[in-house]
Design a protein that fits this description.
With about 300 residues, this protein is mainly alpha-helical. It has helices at about 35-65, 65-75, 110-120, 120-130, 135-165, 170-195, 220-240, 245-309; strands spanning about 85-90, 95-100, 205, 210, 215-220. The radius of gyration is 39 Å and the shape is flat.
């Protein structure tokens, strides 16, 4: 119930359940219903238009052109690069492959490193303190951090394609792709710096993973991931620079396609009616022919019978 009467403006109490106003007697639910119905119709039309606009821009931003179709694919494919081997650390004790499935080593994987780190982060930071926060452990963990950060920027860039559909020439995807590439490069720099400081006397515990006489290097998966990120950046840049259609243009095209579809359906309907009429005409002619033949046979039979008499 409204807080005031729409006719006289009298304040309505919460315990008043009658439909009529005590002051003026007007039926509050039915007051000025035609105007409210028109207002509801206008609001519904506005919501429908807004929905069509959103859907037009959403579909256009994803697969509106061939370039955009390739862009959405190439913005997702770099995720493959993050399951490939980026780095490999070997030692006389164990080896660690910075990849998810142990492609580069039979030792520990990136998942094992994550479990060890989050299982006892204090031990990691203590060991980093022992090496003055400038040793192989520190730089390797920084390399992993920038690797994860690069993946995060890649994911954000992908979802920006969906979230910025109303702005088809947005630069956000390019910015996040660039940040992802920068993080990827920083990751390899951190790892390389850490490996340069190792030697035969180097020994450090990666949590509960002991390593000594350490060596390692950047693996092929890193370069694949970096290449895919660059390709994604290029396509996002090309889309950003390419001409983009407005909602009005997309709506005109949608209405034109709708009109064309309706015209084709109308043409098919007319053809079906013509075919039906022709079929009915042929059936009628065939029936008339059968009737005429039957009459002719009957007349011939009667004539023959008359001659015999």
């Amino acid at each position: 119930m409204a807080s005031t009467c729409p006719n006289c403006g009298r304040r309505l109490r919460w315990y008043e359940f009658k439909a009529e106003c005590k002051e003026c007697g007007v039926s509050i639910p039915n007051f000025n219903w035609e105007a409210r119905l028109e207002e509801d119709a206008e609001k519904a039309a506005e919501r429908s238009l807004a929905f069509h606009k959103t859907m037009n821009m959403f579909t256009y931003s994803i697969w509106g052109t061939k370039l955009r179709i390739v862009r959405i694919i190439m913005s997702f494919i770099p995720a493959i690069g993050y399951i490939l081997p980026w780095y490999k650390i070997t030692s006389d004790a164990q080896s660690i492959g910075i990849d998810l499935f142990g492609i580069s080593t039979d030792g520990k994987t990136l998942l094992d490193l994550f479990k060890s780190f989050f299982g006892n982060m204090g031990l990691y930071f203590t060991n980093m303190g022992y090496e003055g926060k400038s040793g192989v452990l520190t730089y390797t963990m920084l390399a992993v951090f920038f690797m994860v950060l690069s993946l995060l920027f890649m994911v954000i860039a992908f979802f920006m394609i969906l979230f910025t559909n109303k702005h088809p020439k947005s630069k956000l995807m390019v910015i996040f792709d660039a940040l992802g590439i920068a993080s990827c490069i920083l990751s390899s720099i951190m790892f390389t710096i850490g490996m340069k400081g190792t030697g035969a006397e180097t020994a450090v515990n990666f949590g509960d993973i002991p390593l000594y006489n350490i060596s390692g290097g950047v693996m092929w998966g890193y370069f694949v991931a970096l290449l895919l990120l660059v390709v994604a950046l290029v396509f996002n840049f090309l889309v950003m620079r390419a001409p983009a259609k407005s909602h009005e243009q997309l709506e005109e095209e949608r209405l034109a396609r709708k009109a064309e579809k309706e015209a084709k359906e109308e043409q098919k309907r007319i053809e079906r009616e013509k075919a039906q009429e022709e079929a009915e005409k042929k059936a009628k002619e065939e029936q008339e022919r059968i009737v005429a033949e039957a009459k002719a046979k009957l007349a011939a039979r009667k004539e023959k019978e008359n001659k015999k008499k």
